[in-house]
Specification:
globular; alpha+beta; 12 helices; seven-stranded parallel β-sheet; TIM Barrel; Beta-galactosidase, Chain A, domain 5
């Protein structure tokens, strides 16, 4: 619950500064509960602006706020602060699944109403929340005389960062052909043109920050456009007619978020995005089940199987049963099958309107597979690929989910592989229109699939999605999503993912939420001869130990076991870690790391005593010492370590793996030695 008490530095400070002999500028401010983050909002020159400080260091310099409309007067110049209100919250809430069971929501909230100082006297509110790990703010436009239907062209929102020439950033470009599936770049801030969020920076004053958004619903996705050095302006992804958001008075925007930390690991331990989303709207979600699954998937990427019908068709009744037997043998929950429904033959990327989501190929019997799964205790995981023809999917969605419900399918992976800006919808007049993955239209379509699935107790894992903004809190059946370059790029990507890619993901994409990356490929040189230590164009650019560690480092409540079953059974000792590692956690803590270089995560299994640790590095071998302070006191653990061997190297000796066991306890120090693109995976099993 909120409280309006005035406490210490949380108290709203209001100062009036003489701007001219005709007007007075007002300034209001609010602090985070620990007083380390400060936000100032003012109406300098009759223009809403804000500033952010962390430990008295500038994080966001004077930055504009406001909105541009197609027909109505803009919310920009001529506005002054008219009313303010403050609240505070300090509570703990629980996730049904997640990186940690309990999340603390402690923040101070400042609502600032701006009013136009001449007719029409429109008003809107800027709501700021200051947390110990950053801030969020959003626009709230109430119903009022003179405003009805609104078409937002863009926001005036700015993020002005200090010392753009001396600060570093990790980012991917926005508006590119392949959505978010690009390699992250490291550059100086002033070298960026237009970037997607999450957008991570290390300022020259030592502060780390990430700019993103939370609770993106019925609105356009936000990207960042650098208009002059250090001045990043919000750019909303438009509809095909150029309008960004079609709405009406009585709406609010998503939260614009700035996560702030003194160390890189502080960004990883932040819960700000989730705290800015609304609580669970689905009620009882005990049917949403984290777990591990096997996939008839990797073989299609490396050419062993095909999505389309034919001699190498992967989605057959018999092959699915074989994979179910493998899953049952090792205690995995399900088998994902892609390519079972008609429409995959030929150029399915260009002809997504031909997909049927209820008609199977003749060699795939959904009823028999479902019955067999019940017999061996393994669920079928469904799959719908739309190729971006969303109207075709929308028209079949009810029947498609009903079919899965009938056969006991509880999770569905959806796909939207069309290039960015090439989503096909059919408008009310029957004409085809092209939209963006992160525009307002598709934001609604992705959420439609989730809410429709929830009616049938089905969870959704979205591929080629709109970016994650924490809606898994509100809709817990949105169990995972892709939204970045996954493992499949190592099969055919040009170039494949480099050694630093997964480290970069941790400090960028993963700040927004779970990712279905699909770690755990064991045949690291699947189609190449490795003689001479050559770095081949397509292979897995990691050691075997790093593939294991990714199950801990890259969080997702559902994790695929993607490789061919025979490749796991050829290395049973290493495979044991994948069999053991859970996907749902009681606690999680990033204990060491640096952006783009390495990271160490420790996580405790939910409802259990065991801890797991994952550590990965970039192309540089490195040694990291960590203290085991995260373990429970007065307990001894059998520590099962899967680490790179002395000769391990991702190019020449990727399979050099040492498995050893020690006894350790809280407070002990552990040295992690990681090879080039290597890692360490550890299970701390309580005695």
């Amino acid at each position: 619950m909120y409280s309006a008490k005035f406490i210490g530095k949380m108290v709203l400070s209001l100062s009036c500064l003489l701007a001219s002999n005709l007007s007075v500028a007002k300034s209001v401010s609010i602090f985070s509960p620990d007083n380390q983050v400060k936000v100032e909002i003012s109406d300098d020159n009759n223009q809403p602006v804000y500033r952010v400080f962390y430990q008295n260091k500038p994080v966001i310099q004077t930055s504009k706020l406001g909105m541009y409309f197609k027909s109505e007067p803009n919310f920009l110049d001529g506005f002054n602060i008219s009313e303010t209100d403050i609240q505070n919250r300090n509570q703990v809430w629980q996730q049904p699944w997640g990186e940690r069971r309990e999340i603390k929501d402690q923040h101070n909230e400042l609502s600032v109403q701006f009013k136009r100082n001449e007719a029409p006297f429109h008003t809107y509110t800027l709501k700021f929340r200051a947390f110990n790990d950053g801030i969020g703010f959003r626009y709230e436009v109430p119903e009022q005389t003179g405003l009805d239907q609104l078409e937002i062209i863009n926001e005036a929102t700015e993020f002005v960062l200090p010392d753009s020439a001396g600060s570093d950033a990790w980012w991917i470009g926005a508006g590119q052909f392949n959505r978010y599936e690009h390699l992250y770049k490291k550059s100086k801030l002033n070298e960026i043109d237009r970037a997607n969020t999450p957008f991570t920076a290390r300022l020259s004053n030592g502060v780390y920050l990430s700019i993103h958004e939370a609770a993106l619903v019925d609105y356009a996705g936000m990207t960042l456009e650098q208009q002059q050095p250090g001045v990043f302006k919000a750019r909303l992804t438009p509809w095909s007619d150029g309008v960004a958001v079609k709405t009406q008075a009585g709406f609010h925007s998503p939260w614009r978020t700035i996560q702030i930390a003194q160390a890189a690991t502080g960004l990883l331990n932040s819960d700000l995005i989730l705290n800015l989303n609304e609580p669970n709207k689905l009620g009882d979600v005990s049917w949403v089940k984290p777990g591990k699954y096997v996939g008839i998937w990797w073989g299609m990427h490396i050419g062993t199987h095909t999505w389309g019908a034919g001699d190498k068709h992967g989605a057959t009744t018999e092959l699915t049963k074989t994979y179910m037997d493998f899953a049952a043998k090792y205690g995995f929950d399900g088998v994902l099958v892609e390519g079972w429904n008609t429409g995959w033959n030929g150029d399915w990327v260009a002809n997504g309107d031909l997909f049927s989501f209820t008609q199977a190929y003749p060699d795939f019997n959904l009823a028999k597979i479902s019955e067999y799964g019940k017999k061996v205790g393994v669920n079928l995981i469904g799959h719908h690929e739309t190729s971006g023809f969303v109207t075709n999917y929308k028209n079949q969605m009810a029947d498609a989910y009903a079919l899965y419900e009938k056969h006991g399918v509880e999770q569905v992976k959806t796909g939207y592989v069309a290039h960015a800006g090439n989503i096909t919808r059919v408008d009310e007049n029957g004409f085809e229109r092209k939209e963006w993955h992160d525009g307002q239209f598709m934001v609604g379509e992705y959420l439609r699939s989730v809410t429709e699935a929830a009616k049938r107790k089905i969870s959704i894992n979205t591929h080629e999605p709109v970016k994650d903004t924490g809606l898994r809190r509100t809709y817990p059946n949105w169990i995972s999503r892709e939204g970045a370059r996954g493992q499949e790029f190592n099969a055919w990507g040009q170039p494949p993912n480099p050694p630093e890619h997964t480290v970069n993901l941790v400090y960028t994409r993963m700040l927004s939420g779970p990712m279905d990356f699909t770690p755990g490929v064991f045949d690291l040189t699947f189609n190449q001869d490795q003689q001479g230590g050559k770095a081949y164009p397509n292979r897995i650019p990691t050691t075997l130990a790093k593939q294991l560690a990714l199950y801990v480092v890259l969080y997702s409540p559902i994790q695929m076991v993607p490789d061919l079953p025979e490749n796991y059974e050829a290395r049973p000792d290493a495979f044991q870690f994948i069999v053991d590692v859970p996907t749902d956690w009681e606690k999680s803590e990033a204990v060491a790391g640096e952006v783009g270089e390495y990271v160490v995560f420790a996580r405790q299994e939910r409802g259990g005593d065991d801890w797991y640790l994952g550590a990965i590095t970039d192309a540089n071998a490195r040694t990291v010492k960590i203290n085991l302070d995260f373990l429970s006191s007065n307990e001894t653990y059998d520590v099962q370590i899967y680490r790179d061997g002395e000769n391990a190297d991702w190019q020449t000796e990727p399979y050099d793996l040492i498995i050893e066991t020690r006894q350790m306890k809280k407070g002990d120090e552990l040295t992690l030695s990681m090879a080039t693109s290597g890692g360490t995976a550890i299970r701390f099993k309580k005695r």
